[in-house]
Amino acid sequence: MESRPKIAIIDSNTLATLGLKQLLQSVMPIMTVDTFGSFAELESSQFDAYAHYFVSMQIVLSERLFFSERCRKTIVLTLSLNDSAQLTGFHSLYINQPEHELVRALLMLQQHAHGDGRNLPPLPHILQQKILTDREIEVMSLIVQGYINKEIADQLNIGLATVITHRKNIMEKLGMKSVSALTIYAVMHGYVDINKI
Fold first, then answer.
1. Is the CB of residue 74 less than 8 Å from the CB of residue 10?
2. What pTM was estimated for this model as a whole?
3. Which of 24, 34, 51, 120 could form a disulfide with 5 if both were Cys (CB 3.0 to 4.6 A apart)?
4. DSSP for residue 80
């Protein structure tokens, strides 16, 4: 069996690392995500086995040579949107933004690097199956585009109670608890264009 591609997160901020790990596992469910609190921890592992490194700015700056040699695989975690605060030659991910915007940024990175799933192994069979009805897919698409229940009801010419029932069924069928998770699912399965979220 082919092993899953691996991503490393290297950041001393444990809380931020755990949050990013959860988001990455949602965006790329076929990836294994390992976390390291320091560069020394990464160095003591099989560091070249990772497809990507998500690394805090401070660690990239202190280990510039290592990450410069791997700049195509490195995504710098930055606290500023200011262009002058970005490192030339590296992809950056601004982490101080609302969850839905961070999810969108991760999806954009994923699609830029692996558009149409190229370079990634196929999703497990269970994740490829059609789980939702056509109507539920329509409702989900409108939810992740930011429409509220009343607007969805009006747009689909159905009752408000029906929208609420569909919404509940969608979340239960997919085992999701947030609109962010639903957004990731919808974009990854091609139900919604990332430019519409």
1. no
2. 0.68
3. 51
4. -
CB 91 within 8 A of CB 75: yes
Indicate the helix (H) or strand (E) that contains 155: helix 149-156
Residue length, the chain?
A: 197
Mean pLDDT of the chain: 84
Query: Please, what is the Cα angle at 143 between 122 and 163, to 5 degrees?
Result: 115
Q: What is the pLDDT of residues 79-94, one digit of tens each?
A: 877 766 677 888 888 8
Q: pLDDT tens across 90-149, in order?
A: 888 888 888 888 888 888 887 766 544 444 445 445 445 668 888 998 999 999 999 999
Partner residues linked to 142 by β-bridges: none
Write b or e for each residue in 87-111: b if 16 or more Cβ atoms lie within 10 A of its Cβ, otherwise e.
beebbbbbbeeeeeebbbbbbebbe
Beta-bridge partner residues of 76: 55, 92
At 55-71, the pLDDT tens digits run 999 999 999 999 999 99
Which 8-state DSSP code applies to residue 87? P
Of residues 60, 38, 29, the one with CA closest to residue 175:
29
d(CA 177, CA 38): 32
Distance CA 104, CA 180 (A): 9
Query: How far apart are alpha carbons 19 and 25 in whole angstroms?
Result: 10
